[in-house]
Amino acid sequence: MRSRWSYVYFAFYLLLGVVLLFLNNDLSKAVITLMNVIIVLVPLIGTIFGVMYYYNSKEFTELLLAQPLKRSSIFLGQYLGVALSLSMSLILGLGLPFVFYGLFESSAIWDFSLLLITGTFLTLIFTALAFNIALSNENKIKGFGYAILLWLFLAIIYDGLFLMTLVMFDDYPLDKLSLIGTMLNPIDLSRTLILLKLDISALLGYTGAVFKQFFGTNFGLIVSFIMLTIWIILPVLRILFKAKKKDF
Amino acid sequence: MKNIISFLVVVFISNAAISQALEVCSDCEISTLKEAIRQAKDFDTIIVKKGTYKEYDVIINKPLTIIGEDYPVIDGEFKGEIITVISDNVTLDGLFIKNVGTSYTEDYAAVRVRESKNFVIQNLVLEKLFFGIYIEKSRDGKVFHNKIIGDAVEEYNSGNGIQLWYSKNIQIEHNFIQHVRDGIYLEFSDGCTIKNNVSALNVRYGLHFMFSNDDIYEDNTFENNGAGVAVMFSKRIKMYNNIFKENWGTASYGLLLKEINDAEIVGNTFADNTIGINVEGTNRINYKHNTFKNNGWAIKVKGACYKNIFTENNFLYNSFDIAYNSKVNDNEFNRNYWSNYTGYDLDKDGVGDVPYRPVKLFSYIVNRTPETIILLRSMFIDIIDFSEKVSPIFTPDNLLDDHPQIKKILW
């Protein structure tokens, strides 16, 4: 089951990469389009796939639990199995067409590697979140519902609320608030990471000292990566904790 | 044959009699430039040999040609102005001038040309300077192949590389200017040509026009300055084939236009600037065949701009193509290529069938609340931009390119 779906996923990215390059004839534009895909689709697929996998393999998991195996290694193994195979499909599926197109001779290679790295981070984060949701909900329909809602919230609604807050409080100094707001959402965080590469000229136009420090130096890059790692570690810890306590 | 030789000899002798060459070196009869100038007659040539000459306030008051051999050093020891030209027909060539005095009351320059005609200043190297080449109330001069390296940090205590004040018909070509306040500064100077210069890393502007009309600048490169070029309160300036790049910062522009009428901006490249062109109060300007690439804002229009025409420009991967701060538009956009264009071309005539709206709702929001820039390229922003595109409410609804090109324009 797992392998079949990761092939489909792989094929999807392969097709996407080929079509993008075929239509655009320009690496830098393809990178921009890819950013949208990575920020929107990767979390969605990670979430759905994670939830689906958990519910489908539930009976097998229960069988495994009867064996003398540590719970943490069963669930961690399942999580890593899903997350890593998804990441591999992403990296290979997008990487291959770009490599054939001549990525290594292009200056876009750093932007592109950054895209793949953030894509991998997002897969790891959202699969972990999906496992959390599935572990906490016995009801499949409810589980799927929450998973979709989670994605919708982080991908779109959060930004809407964020924008409204910023516009409403625009009489106050907001640069710290806006940076913190970004840190709290992994999708925004990955977007900012990519922006640091693609739109740095626009970002440097803003006056705030905090912004300047964040965008102007490597500080922003480092902080963002640390936050993304935290975003992986916390849900994974909760998976282990939950799995230990849960009655099957 | 004999005739020719004797003719040449006569020419040579008479020539030598008219313009005699004086040599200056540390162990010659004449060991200072000042002394050489005092002894020289009109139209003489002074040859300065290699060495270091500690001199300042050197006044050239007769038509002379001063040529340095192997870049002799004229060291002003920070005492004041170094060379002042007050005569017509003076040529300065191949000197290394350094250590100009800094003053808050007087504009000391490495070379000042005052009220003279037909001067040539070429192959100079200027370092540790306050003002570099200061040309006032002069005309018909040439400033070629000079290298000016300053060490300016702050605006208030630094000077400009090449400054023109009330001067006419000056040609400034192939100069290389770095680390001064304004690379080249023109005030009340008309009919000047500025060509093939490189002006980089300056504290304020790469090139700065104030109240100067009918000037032309072309094929220059402006890189990494406080702002690339500022053109203010001037008329009929022509700007051709210049490169403006990497002018980054909160108040940084590739090109700043303020109160400019009837200018031509053709064939320029604006790349990686925070703002490509910042436009304020300009009328009847033609923008044609320019390339805007990877800028934060390609063009930011601040208001009071009428009858500007943008045709056949390439807008490539800018974060924002055009920003307006008002709802009124009297400018024309036509036949440009926009890399953000998402329309289609069913009849295959190379022109998109749906007009393109270069002003996005998000750029309006960012204008009001600058911090929202952090939401750039978020999906939510794409959604509101799309709805604004369908029915414009906040952005000027007649601001559109009716004939967006499908392919990048080549010329």
From TrEMBL, chain B:
All copies of domain Carbohydrate-binding/sugar hydrolysis, residue ranges: 48-187
Domain of life: Bacteria
Annotated signal peptide: 1-21
Sorted UniProt keywords: Repeat, Signal, Ubl conjugation pathway
Pathway the protein acts in: Protein modification; protein ubiquitination
Any Pfam family hit: NosD
NCBIfam families: NosD_copper_fam, para_beta_helix
Record-given protein name: Nitrous oxide reductase family maturation protein NosD
Lineage of the species this protein comes from: Bacteria, Pseudomonadati, Bacteroidota, Flavobacteriia, Flavobacteriales
